Amino acid sequence: MPYVEEVCQAGKTIEVRKYYSPRWHSEGERRAKKEKPTSEAVEKINHRNRERDLRRLMNNNFKDGDLLLRLDFCNKPTGSEEMQDIMAQFIRRLRREYSKTGTELKYIYVKEVGPRGCRHIHMMLTKCDTEVLRKCWKFGGIHIDPLNSEGQYGKIAAYFIKYALRTEETEERLIGKRWYGSRNLAKPEVKKKVIKANKFRATVKEKNGYYLEKDSVKYGVNEMGYEYFSYTLIKTDMQTRGA
Fold this sequence. Notes:
Layout (H helix, E strand, L loop, with lengths): L2 E8 L2 E7 L19 H23 L5 E5 L8 H21 L6 E7 L5 E7 L4 H7 L5 E5 L7 H18 L8 E2 L7 E7 L14 E3 L5 E4 L5 E9 L8
Antiparallel strand pairs: 1-2, 1-8, 2-11, 3-5, 3-6, 4-5, 4-7, 9-11, 10-11
Helix pairs in contact: 1-4
């Protein structure tokens, strides 16, 4: 029974997935009885895919020392559309400031509209002087944290998707996009190959100069009834890891 081996190189991370797919389903393949996933199961798959795609994009375009922001508002916007207008002004100002130093501006941001009235922007962007941010953001407070997780930003991606879904639920529809990114974001390299074998081996293949991310090893059966196995390797930073 053939399976797919997918390898994604994104920044300092290498994600490896092995899985069966309906596209490559063949007679005799081990599969659970469930043929049609429920709407809840489909939503879980979609949610997991959103997190995966955003995580890979973040890992491929940002590095430790770049910035994670929470932008607040003195006067709360009515909702997504007004927040989007404000962000357009902010990004225009940022581009002007970055261009003065010849720095390439990359960013990803998401809007948070809570059911109790909270309004925030959560943003990841390339490093700059914090005074530049204060000069450009004229709408409220700024909370700034340098990225510091050895090139793996999966937790941040999960939070961004969480905020996006909260906004969609509050506004009872999707207004604009779930998240926004600059046009110069580089897509990660993803390679897939179909392997004809009776069964895949659920083992981690080590690689020189990389270490296995804690808790990244996952083995099970997905909502479609197919087995899968996945793990993530992260490039070793000798300085930060004290080696």
